[in-house]
Amino acid sequence: MTRLHPVNASHPHRVLILGAGHIGRAIALLLEDAGSYTLTVADRDDAALKRLQVHSAATLQVTDDAMLEAAIAGHHAVLNALPFHQAVPVATLCARHGVHYFDLTEDVASTRAIQALAEGARSALMPQCGLAPGFIGVVGNALAQRLDRAEALQLRVGALPRYPQGALRYAMTWSTEGLINEYCNPCDAIVQGRRTSVPALDGLETLLIDGVEYEAFNTSGGLGTLPQTWEGRVQQLDYKSVRYPGHHAILQLLLHELRLRDRRDLLKELLDGAVPTTQQDVIVILASARGQRDGRLVQESYAAHILGASVRGQMLSAIQRTTAAGICAALDLVMAGQLPQAGFIGQEQIALEDFLANRFGRIYRAPGSVGDAGSPQAPLARSLQAVGA
C-alpha cells in the first residue's frame, strides 16, 4: 500500500527519510519546517505515516530489497532512521544509485562497512550524523585543533530524564537496541597514542557539571571515526555516557553478575517492560581537550544542557531535537557543497563554525538552559568562547 501527496516541484532536492519512528518523525518535522526539500517518508507502519504531514508518504517493507531499491532510486539523498542493522543494506543501495546517504548508527562494524563501500562511490556516504556519534565528534575535533599539541580529549554525553525515579534513575529516550549495544559492545579509544578497544562500563568516574553530580563510564560507538583521525596525534581519547549516580552499579549486576550481556533479547524484554519512556529529558554534554598552547598546559571545554521544544505544533524531546538536528545539518552542508560530494565523510570533517551557523545546528549554539522547553535562559559564555562561536 502506498499513499502519496502532491509534491512541491519548486524544491529541487528530493529527500527520502527511511523510518517514521521518534527520530524519523523529528527529522521530517525539522526539514518540513525549513521548507527547502521535497520529502518522502517511508515506513512499514502506515499508522505512523498518517501522523506525519509531509509532501509524500509511502508504506514500505524495508526488508524487501526490490521495494527498498525502487524507493531510493530517483532521490538526491536518503536519511536512514531505521535500526542499526539496516545501515549497510541501505548504504549499499545508495552507493549503487549515486544517492547521498546519511544515518544515525552508533554501530562501529556498520560504519567500517560503509567506509569500505564509499571507496569509488559517486555519492557521499555519511553515517553517524546524530549527537554521539555526530555533533560530539565535531566539537571534540574543534577543541583539539585549538591546541598546538593536544594530549587528551575527553567526550561525555548523557540523554537523561529531567525527573529521574527508581533505582536506575533512568528512562528510555531512544532505541533500546542501541542502548544495549552501547552497554555491551567494545569501546574504541586511544590509549598512550594508539587506537585500542576498552570494555564497556569500565572507567567509572564522577562528574560535577554546573553543580549537579553525575557519573560516567565507557560506552560503545560515541566516538565515530575520531580514533582513526587522532591516532598518533593525541595520547588519550575516550567517550563516556553520563548518568545519574547509582546507575552503573545496577548495570554491573544485570550485565555481568546475571550475565544478561549474553542474552540481549531477554535484556531488551526486561528493559522495555520495566523502564518507562519519557519526553521530558535533557541532553548533557561535556567535551574537554587538554594540551599545550604557547608553551603552557591549557584546557578547552564545551558544556551544554539542551531541552526539548515544539516544532510545527508537535513537541520534540531533547534527544529527538539534537539527533535530528545533527543529520539535518549534515544534509544541508552536503547539499550546499560545504562538504565533499562523494566518498566517505566523517563527522570531524565538518567545521564547527559551519555546523553552528547552520539553521539546524544552531540549537547547539545556546547551551545552558534549564528552564522551560525551548526557552534558553543563560547561555554558557565560557562554552561558546571555548569553541570560538
TrEMBL record:
Pfam families: Sacchrp_dh_C, Sacchrp_dh_NADP. The lineage of its organism: Bacteria, Pseudomonadati, Pseudomonadota, Betaproteobacteria, Burkholderiales. Signal peptide: none annotated. The keyword Oxidoreductase applies. Keywords: Oxidoreductase. Residues 15-108 form the Saccharopine dehydrogenase NADP binding domain. GO terms for molecular function: oxidoreductase activity. It comes from Diaphorobacter nitroreducens. Residues 130-351 form the Saccharopine dehydrogenase-like C-terminal domain. This is Saccharopine dehydrogenase-like NADP-dependent oxidoreductase. The keyword Repressor does not apply. InterPro entries: AASS, NAD(P)-bd_dom_sf, Sacchrp_dh-like_C, Sacchrp_dh_NADP-bd.
